[in-house]
Design a protein that fits this description.
The complex is a heterodimer of chains A (about 110) and B (about 110). Chain A is mainly β and about 110 residues long. In chain A, about 0% of the residues lie in helices and about 55% in strands. In chain A, strand 7 (about 60-65) and strand 8 form a beta hairpin. Chain B is an all-beta fold and about 110 residues long. In chain B, about 0% of the residues lie in helices and about 50% in strands. Chain B contains no helices and eleven strands. Chain B has strands at about 5, 10-15, 20-25, 30-35, 45-50, 55, 65-70, 75-80, 90-95, 100, 105-110. The chains are: A mainly beta (about 110), B mainly beta (about 110). Chains A and B meet through strand 5 and strand 10 of A and strand 4, strand 5, strand 9 and strand 10 of B.
Chain lengths: ~110, ~110
């Protein structure tokens, strides 16, 4: 099955700093989502981004499907950005299920 | 804004007891997923439904886990008997065919 890697595994930032999170996947995909898991465990949709670039406030994401990676940019980070960021792509055997990466744990310090 | 509902939010049960979780997907979403998330890891798919039919349950431990979606709307995931290793977050999601939307999850502790 498809393999998903995320880097870095852990990231500590001072409030106001910028960061880039990376998601690599081992096979072609037609779908990719980024999620933020808050301290209560809720997975929040950030981006549906099978290709191209999208922006939403201080967050933006880029997926280069032909090179099998996606990037999530966080600018001017805030303490509320803390949590775990996951990317997810479809499993190759069944079109609509998803395989998650191991996540990047972000801590933003005041 | 429509949301995926799950209950209970927290459940503590003793080893060998039965436990059940409920999920109500976003109205109109035909595809429903149950995931298990162990602390420090990403969610892993347990079962996928399309309407009332199981599409993928290859990772569901069928000796103790069962899932149903009788009328193709809400769904129940059951564990019987629970084991210590089942302690995890159980997440339900539904999709509009593009994005997945997750419920708040049920955090299960088996003692």
């Amino acid at each position: 099955g498809i393999q998903v890697e995320q880097s870095p595994p852990d990231l500590i930032l001072q409030e106001g700093a910028n960061s880039t999170l990376r998601c690599n996947f081992s096979d072609s995909v037609n779908n990719l989502q980024w999620f933020h898991q808050n301290p209560w465990g809720q997975l929040i949709n950030l981006f549906y981004i099978p290709s191209g670039t999208k922006q939403n406030g201080r967050l933006s994401a880029t997926t280069v499907a032909t090179e099998r990676y996606s990037l999530l940019y966080i600018s001017s980070s805030q303490t509320t950005d803390s949590g775990v960021y996951f990317c997810a792509v479809p499993g190759v055997n069944y079109g609509q299920n998803f395989v998650f990466g191991p996540g990047t744990r972000l801590s933003v310090l005041p | 804004e429509a949301e995926v509902a799950q209950s209970p939010r927290y459940k503590i049960t003793e080893k060998s007891q039965a436990v059940a979780f409920w999920c109500d997907p976003i109205s109109g979403h035909a595809t429903l997923y149950w995931y298990r998330q162990i602390l420090g890891q990403g969610p892993e798919l347990l079962v996928q439904f399309q309407d009332e039919s199981v599409v993928d349950d290859s990772q569901l431990p069928k000796d103790r886990f069962s899932a149903e979606r009788l009328k193709g709307v809400d769904s129940t995931l059951k564990i019987q008997p629970a084991e210590l290793g089942d302690s995890a977050m159980y997440l339900c999601a539904s999709t509009d065919g593009y994005e997945q939307y997750f419920g708040p999850g049920t955090r299960l502790t088996v003692t």
